[in-house]
Structure formats: structure tokens, C-alpha cells
Amino acid sequence: MAHAIAAADDHHRTWTGVSNWKLGFWTFIASECLFFGTLISTYMVYKGRAVVGPYPEDIFNILLTTTSTTILLFSSLAMVLALDAVNRARKGLAIFWLGMVMLMGLAFIGIELYEYMHFIHEGLTVTSSTFGSSYYVVTGTHKLHVLVGVIWMGTLAWLIHKDRIPPEKSEQVEVAGLYWHFVDVIWIVIFTLVYLIS
Amino acid sequence: MSTDVTHVDGNPTPAHEEGHDSHPSVAFYVTIGAILAIVTGVEVAIYYMPQFEAVDVPLLVILSTMKILLVMMFFMHLKMDHRALTWIFLSGIALAAFMVSALVVLFHVVPRFDP
Do A87 and B1 touch (CB under 8 A)? Predict the structure, then answer.
């Protein structure tokens, strides 16, 4: 019996001291860096080469994008506070902060979709120019990642509500947090390269 | 915050074994969030101020790198976590940065590759 318990314990211990789930997720994040790297490369290659308008300087509303960027940055803060609440077994607070992450994620998507509507009205579509194609692909893929994150946070909040994530299983929230912060990091890069550097 | 790290199965592992120190306090996280917001404000100010036009690209790259490092070290807990995780993430970032830089040089600096 003791031998079986020891064997089960060894199964979950790794020689690196890092749990397999966390190690695997960090590897996935590293691969996502390359995925976004290809999309950002495409945008950078075509930057300033569109032959038909509208051009970035004609349509970008930097103050509006700064608002959505700040919202996304604060959602990362809400995410670490949610993890902190789970670790301290404060179920209600954890659900509140995860709800805030979802709310801010949805606000970010809402602002960006409003921006899309404005751009389409101005004549910038996926097929109108190389700028339009590369811009919508980069930012659209990022928005899709934010949406996946929002759904993930909602699932976690539901699981916490059902007492399925006690403090000793907080790694589930930590890994979701890694994903959310990564999405935040990618937006920091996009905001600088696409919006601010003209 | 707990100093012990727990595996998915619920078996606790001592913090030192995972490479953890103690996690920061809530006030510390709020301070990092405020710094990120302030740096974003500075970036936008640089974008609008014509005095910085000649140096805006390096300044914006430095400031955004600073923001990325803050998120990585403290929000993603890389500063407290096992060193191997930092290397895995940095390898992905380095490869992506090399790819973006190489393509930008090929298409914007070397005229032969002009599309």
C-alpha cells in the first residue's frame, strides 16, 4: 500500500520541480510568441506600402486605443488579484475579480469592434489594401484570443462557485492567468508597433 | 499568499522545490498596475509631442519593453518561479523578435527584396 502511494506521488513529481501542466503551458506560450511573430512580421513588412487609402494616420484614434489598452492592462491586475483571492480561500472575492477580468476583456473587445466599424465606414476593409489585410489579421487574431480568455475566466468563476477549485488547486487559475497576461503582453507589442510607431 | 506550491493533483510541494520565493502583496500588484498605466500615458505623450519625433521609435521600444518585463516578472510570476520557465518564454520571444527584425531588414533595408 505504502509502495503504491509512493509510486503515485512519484508520478506527479518531476525532476525539474515544475509541474508538467505549468511547463507545458509555458511551452505553448513560447509557441504563441512565434505565431504572433509571423502575423506582426507580415504587418511590419507591408507597413507604409499601401497604395490606396485610408492610411493608418488618417483613421487611427490613438486616445480611443489608449483607453482600451489601459483597460486591458488593468484586467491583468484584476487577474493577479483573483489568483491571490483563490490562494487565500476567499471564494467571493475570487469570483468578483474574475468577473472584473471578463468585464474588462469584453469592454476591450467592444471598443476595438467599435473601431473596426469606424474603419469599415471609412473604407478600410480586409480586401481594400495590404494595410487593411495585415491590420485586421493581427488585431483580429488578438481579439479572438481575448474572447477565449473571457470564456475561460467565466468557466473558472463557475467552477469556483461550485467549490471545484479549492486553494490547493489554485494552479488552474494561475495557468489561466498566464494566458491572460500573455494576451496583455502581445497587445503591448501591437499597440507600440501598429499604433504608436508611424 | 501561500508559500507552498500545489500540483494539479493537490499534493503540496515545498516552495523552494518549485523555485518560489514569497509572492508579492496586493499593494505591490496595484503599484505595478499603476506604473503600467503611467508608462502607457508617457508613450502616448511621446507620440503626440513633436519634440520627440527624432527619437520616438527607440523611446517607445524601450518603454514597451519595460512594460513587458514588468508583466512578465511580477504578473506572470517569472521572477519568483523556476528559472527554466523564464528560459522557455525568452526562447520564444527571442525567436519571434529575430524573425520580425530579419524580415523588416530584408523588406525595408535591402531593396532587392522589395515586394
Answer: yes
